[in-house]
Write a structure and sequence with these properties.
InterPro entries: DUF4202. This is DUF4202 domain-containing protein. The protein has eleven helices and two strands, in the order H-H-H-E-E-H-H-H-H-H-H-H-H. By secondary structure, it is mainly α. It folds into two domains: 147 residues; 69 residues, no CATH class. A hairpin with a 2-residue loop joins strand 1 and strand 2. Helix 8 packs antiparallel against helix 9. The chain is globular and about 50 Å long. The two termini are 18 Å apart.
Length: 242
């Protein structure tokens, strides 16, 4: 039976939200979230945000806040990539007890300024699609590394983040699987409905199977806890029983 996971974000009064920028709103959610994790964990090191990490997260949020596309989330219209980065951050923090700074940076910057490179900027067809995807990853990695350099991160940290975003050495670094799981969970929780309406249930069964194959045990367990609507849950059940 599919049940709802514990909410990791905090609701704010509407009049408070109206006075804050989207970045400030998401920073408040993230701060409260890490405080909750600290109180329930024997180790508080994972909840500490160093000044340089905060500098990187803020810089990424500032870029993502420029997204002209919006999404309604918790009663607010937010820039889409700003909201997406928070969804990904929340899942990473749920899946990983003690996330490294590199992992938290990747969660925030995985799709930084993604709207600037639309699919239409590459040729049509399967080959063009894969070129687009590779171009996106390279662009995201370069942007995040530039921000990390400005904050004083060393070459090793920059290279690790680059590998994460480019999805290199997936099996060699356990935190790489956390990123993949979080991406799949964001898809299932926030993007599933639109794609189901576009593609139909039969094609979605195949998509879910491919998504499931990318996920580790922790990600799969989290996926099974999602409170999906009946039509989406039926697709997942078909995919996993086939």
């Amino acid at each position: 039976m599919i049940c709802a996971p514990q909410r990791l974000h905090c609701h704010k009064a509407h009049h408070q939200a109206a006075k804050q920028t989207p970045q400030q709103q998401l920073r408040l959610r993230h701060s409260r979230h890490t405080t909750t994790r600290t109180s329930s964990s024997s180790s508080s090191s994972s909840a500490v945000t160093s000044p340089r990490l905060q500098q990187v997260l803020d810089a990424i949020d500032t870029l993502n806040a420029q997204d002209p596309r919006t999404v309604s989330w918790q009663g607010q219209d937010l820039p889409y990539e700003l909201a997406y980065s928070q969804w990904l951050t929340e899942w990473v923090l749920q899946l990983q007890q003690q996330p490294s700074e590199e992992l938290r940076i990747v969660a925030r910057g995985q799709h930084v300024q993604r709207w600037k490179t639309p699919r239409s900027s590459y040729p049509e067809g399967k080959a063009g699609y894969f070129q687009w995807r590779e171009g996106l990853k390279a662009s995201h990695a370069a942007t995040v590394v530039e921000i990390m350099q400005a904050a004083g991160y060393d070459e090793a940290s920059q290279q690790r983040v680059t590998r994460f975003i480019l999805k290199k050495d997936l099996k060699k670094d356990p935190e790489n699987q956390v990123v993949e799981d979080a991406l799949c969970l964001v898809f299932m929780q926030h993007q599933f409905a639109d794609l189901l309406a576009k593609e139909g249930p039969d094609k979605m069964v195949d998509i879910v199977r491919k998504t499931w194959a990318k996920m580790g045990e922790g990600g799969r367990a989290a996926a099974l806890s999602l409170a999906l609507p009946a039509d989406q849950a039926a697709v997942v059940q078909r995919a996993l029983s086939g």
